[in-house]
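User: If you would, consider this record:
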Amino acid sequence: MGAIARALANDPDVLLMDEPFSALDYSTRVKMEETIQRIWLEAEKTTVFISHDVDEAVFLADRVVVLSNRPARVVKEIKIGLPRPRTMETRMGEKFHLLRNEVIKAFQSGAVK
């Protein structure tokens, strides 16, 4: 959380987050995803969030961009139309699972070979 606070203290136009929660256990990760969503809603900062976790990407994103292996190319861009704020109930909803499956299919079609 300290690293996020330091990054926001500089008031950047864009916040780049490269897998910030990858080393966390599930419970802590979910809490941090909800916290970063709240901060994002309050600060209204453009955020580029890199993640290999499909659930995390769908939960946090307005759009998910699936990239291929090297050389990287855009396989698919998926708009995430889930309302905010997103909660644990969002994760259990049908639309969340449909979007999650769409992201997984995009990986299968071009990113993972």
User: Anything to note?
Assistant: The mean pLDDT is 90.
